[in-house]
Amino acid sequence: MSSQDIPEENVPAERASDDHAGHAPVAVADEQNPFADPGLPPHEHRIQDIDERAAKRSERLVAMLFVLSMLATVGFIASYVAIPADKSVYIFPLGHISALNFALGMTLGVALFAIGAGAVHWARTLMSDVEIADERHPIEAAPEVKAKVMADFRDGARESALGRRKLIRNTMFGALALFPLSGVVLLRDLGPLPGTKLRHTLWSKGKLLVNMNTNEPLRPSDLAVGSLTFAKPEGLEEHDEDFQKEIAKAALMIVRLQPQDIKDKQELEWSYQGIVAYSKICTHVGCPISLYEQQTHHALCPCHQSTFDLSDGARVIFGPAGHALPQLQIGVNAEGYLEALSDFQEPVGPAFWERG
């Protein structure tokens, strides 16, 4: 509906005057002013400007969006508290994904979208849309400019109808006040404290050393001098729900050296026929160590190049790692399989874990 279709008596008085204010005749281009000033086109009134029922519908829609944002924020908090972190669901076409991550992402996205959509619809349908032309002025603000800015601010506040349309105002304040609670709830992830659980792994006396590639228990004959093998504790399977959490502490790196090449006395005592077992987790930031120099017996972390001498207690010889790799004491059982004789005697992984 255009302004030409609106009877003059239905056009708000302050709007009707706008159609004829500030629209000077179009300037004609000449030598001094080569570009003509087209001026502003006639103002087109919106349906909400002339029909209070349409304005009420827009007001209710904006309020509904703000209420939707509040409900989504409550849903975010409820999902965070109620959905287990290890629960997965099937969502087409994404496949199996974390139920918690999906719920948090959806509710947070809806909360943000509803606030933004409500604000945009409010501005486009209920706030003043009268075109205003303003002349360029120096950067510094003269007193009269400051007065004009304040007057414009007051006019904008009045035209937003924030005081008159209490439904929009109250629901907007509610959505904006409730939404930050999403971030406050996330602070729960800072606790609880780890206690002593980082000091213990699945290794214990009698646990067999299982090859990570073949999933078979290891015998001393399976390991050649100079070889590098990765192992896990007996009973830990990849399909277990807590596999990633447990393997992050229990992953083992097995190297076979000549017994006479082992320089550290304790390393020799905790080995079996030159077979030594060390934690695979770097003591810098927890990256998995996967590179081994057969001639020098050095293990290299690919993340930050921390280097450990596996023939001398896995001490650090280069890089930012803070201390040597923990060694696992091993032996052979009655059936000839390699087994652990205890858990690690010190925490595995980064140095700061020792404070857990």
Describe the structure.
- By secondary structure, the chain is α+β, with helices and mostly antiparallel strands.
- It has nine helices and 13 strands.
- The strands form four sheets. It has a five-stranded antiparallel sheet. Strands 7-8-9-10 form a four-stranded antiparallel sheet, with no helix packed on it. The protein has a two-stranded antiparallel ribbon with strand order 1-2.
- The longest helix is centred in the first third of the chain and has 31 residues, at 52-82.
- It is elongated and about 100 Å long.
Q: What's this, in brief?
A:
The chain has nine helices and 13 strands.
Shape by Cα distribution: elongated
Gyration radius over CA: 36 Å
Biggest sheet: strand arrangement: 3-4-5-6-11
Name the poorly predicted regions: 14-23
Helix vs. strand class: alpha+beta
Number of helical runs?
Answer: 9
Oligomerization: single chain
Order of helices and strands: HHHEEHHHHEEHEHEEEEEEEE
Query: Would you report the number of β strands?
Result: 13
- Content of β-strand: 5-15%
Helix content: 25-40%
Mean pLDDT: 85
**N-end to C-end Cα span:** 69 Å
Largest sheet: 5 strands, antiparallel
